[in-house]
Structures are given as structure tokens and as C-alpha cells.
Predict the structure.
Amino acid sequence: MNEVELKKAGRISRLTNRTFQFEKELGEGFYSANYFLKSQKIVKENEPNHIVTMQWFQRRETAYLCGVDEAIALIHTFAIHPEELEIYALNDGDLIKANEPVLKVTGKYENFGFLESVIDGILARRSSVCTNVKEVLLAAGDTPVFSMADRQDDYHTQIGDGYATYVGGINRVSTDAQGYWWGGKGMGTMPHALIQVCGGDVCKAADVYLKSFPNEKVTALIDYHNNVVRDSLILARHLKEKLNAVRVDTSKSLIDHYFDGKDTSGFDPHGVCKELIFALRKALDDEGFNYVKIVVSSSFSKEKIIEWKKLGVPVDLFGVGTYFVNNMTCGFTGDLVVLDGKGEAKEGRANYPSDRLKKVSYPIY
């Protein structure tokens, strides 16, 4: 069992730096805001040994927390004398409220304060992705969702985003990097590029796919010619039971040729529209291909999925990318709120009480 599986089984309480592999530059301040580095030097030279408490919180009415285990592992790896710090925290995956403290660290400021902005960023990124995933899954209900977020940001984000995606509830990801921290593997079948290499012949692309992967059924991208219904039927007749699904990924700038000569004045026919998917399902079913699933992707958001579910659009799998990782919704703040045992904070901040925070032991493995 990997660490995530052990944690789910209750055999460890936190993931550790055995999971989170940090760059040494984090401990050297390379990624820390410069004024935190200056403050560390000033305090060490002029006001050392004060015991402070720093707490982290966010302002969304509700959110799903992620990044806490990573932040704790970061502190235990790079803080000075981390064994002297007292840490209280919630858990990855917890539902949190606005202004609720999720992490509190008590100790000498000069020993950990320089990590503040890095922890802010970890909590903000991971919690935003986790929250977006949770909300999409709630919208999708019993329809599974596949994360295609690898292509929506710098590749360095894939591992952490993939972990937050898993905490949010999705284990279908497109790259091995997205599954690295939780032991998952990337999945998928055919890109547009394979069809292009085959001269635009979708059937040939499926055939060569099966030559290399004979034990798999094909999930084929079907919008290459922007004629989804026609090409899905051609491919289904060709592959029969070897066709698992067709994926519709029509660009929002295009109108599928299915609508050529049809009245589209009552709806927006651009991209992957619900009218196209209803037509595709009917066409497949009418020819006996009711076993062929329909996968949709391209610009799907929580709001669009909610609308489609209410209308009963026949989708077997939603592919979501941009909405997960380019939709940062949770901003975290770290504040000093206690000085030498007494409340001390800037106006508008205070040491917020919480009976949900649990003490984290050192070491944690």
C-alpha cells in the first residue's frame, strides 16, 4: 500500500516528506517573498526567541481543504528546529468555512516564519483544485468525471494538482505525474494527432490503435472532421463491439456539420452543445449501438454540467480540464496572532478558536 492508501485505511495520520519531494531551494528562501527573509534576519539579530503563533485561513463561505499535509511536511523539512514547533491542523479533504483556521504553528518566528508565503501558495492551489473537483463531482452526480488538466498549466503543477484532484474524489487522470503522490496512472486512448497521421481516416486510426493495444477497446475522438454523428456511425459499423466510446471535443468556434441546413435559431449550436449529443445518442441507438458510450470534453464547467444533468443529456463521462486548475477560488492568508502567550495581531485579525484542529506530532512517520 502507498501512503495515501495507508492514510485512507487509518494506519497513518498524515502524509509526509516521503510523499512530498521538495526542492532544496525551498529551505534556502528561493521561493519565499523577500521581505520574509529580511524579517527572519532582523528578528534573529534584534528580537530573537519570541514565541509566536501563526494561523492560516481562507475567506470562501465553504471550501474543501487540501495541501495541509504538504505544508506540514514542508515545515518539518525546512524549519529550523522543527521538533520545537507546536502544530495544530485540519485534514486534507475537510470541508471548511470562511475564516476557519486550518493550520496553526507556534514557535520562534525566526525558525519558521520565512515559509509563510510558500505555505499560502500550497494551501491556495491545492484547496482551489480540490474544491473545484468536489463541486464538479457534486454537479455530475452518478456520471464519472475524467481530469484532463495536464494541458492547462505548466507541467510542474501536475503532481500537486493531481494529488488535490484525488483528494477531491477523482482517480481518472491523463498523466502518470498526476497520479504520482497517490499511486495512480494516466489513462486515455486516441488524440487528434493519431487521426491526422492516418490521413484523417478515423477507422484506420482505430485499427492501428488496436494493433498496438489489442486487448483494449477503443475510445475514439470523433470530431476531427466536425461531423460527429456521421463519423461515429461509420466507426461503430467498422469496429462494432471493439468500440467502447466516442469522445466529442468540438471547438466552441465551430458548428458541427450535423446542423448544416437545419434551423438552429432556438439554441447556440457552437461547440459541444446538448442538441448534438442528443442527436448522437439517438443515431447510435437507432442502429443498435446502444453500448457505445459518449464522452464529452472542451470547456465544461460546474455550471454547464449542472444544466446538462437537469436536462438529462446522455453523457457517460465528462472530461474537465481548465475549470479544475485555471479557476483559483481559495486564497489563504497566514497571520501572526499570538506573541509570547498574549493575543497580538493586526486590526481585523485574531486568534480564531477551533475545536477541530488536531495536534500534529513530530516526527510524523
